[in-house]
């Protein structure tokens, strides 16, 4: 399903098969089609109830459109809960919702999932709308979806998009303000994913600080990738693989426009309002020419840390009991002996992180898996040696002499003879 924005006193859409721009003119009650000259041509009249039209014109700001079935175009009016269906067979426009209150969800992101219209976030009434709502066609009311945990503070502007393949909603880099005098808008760098199956928000991490999301705020979503338009640069972002690619050449200039819409992977928008040409951004084609920029977000390991702390606290009593037992003969695994023997060679020459990954046969795994395997192996060896030889942190981490940001590993100085006797 495709959608886009429309402005003026008209309900506007792009025909999905022909890409022709059409509208329901609310002033003359005619269906109109845009000509190549940017002028509009009358096609045929349509009907709408007088009171419904009066309500629509009074509250109209701008709209989004959807195609729920072959003969219906559904319009939602920004900042309200109004839902209008236009029947292409009968040429009738009809309001189908029963909304009373409005004004709280300007800028909400709307999409279809499993034939249900959803609306996420937005702002209004000097506050942010943090809820996920959906339109129930049976009751003709907007209902709330209740997550199992709390999500982001605000979902307005920034990266907003629903992935049908992932059955998930992604959000981040939104505006946030407290409505104070002379206040600067804060850009949130937290990035979240909402899983519709688990009904749970996941904080994926903090957005790459090298992405210019404060300076450039034009962001679009094509169902699989976000794009960030930065004039002479185009950032193509995959939130699932956590990758950012950068496209840049000497002839392309990327600026935003009005009424964006998507066909397949390509994003279209109207440059300079009604007067400018339709700009297309073929994301997949540009991705093939782009270079790798970096990760989109730094993953959030806080849950793992809290879990590890809880496990350590729970196991503290048992550990103290084991420590005070009569010492038993130490039992080292083959991989542990292999690592200790390597640390003994060449007068305790430090082992780099890359070499350690190869020793532990994890160099082909993901960085997250490598980090976990290294941590657990060194932790096990240090605990065994401390219990048997009363040496605390026998294998220690030191910064690399070539690059202080990198970590090397070695035996604590003065322990070599005891470790040699052990292995």
Automatic annotation (TrEMBL):
What are the transmembrane regions?
303-322
Looking up InterPro entries in the UniProt record yields: Gal_Oxase/kelch_b-propeller, Kelch-typ_b-propeller
Keywords, alphabetical: Membrane, Transmembrane, Transmembrane helix
Stated name of the protein: Uncharacterized protein
Origin species: Aquirufa avitistagni
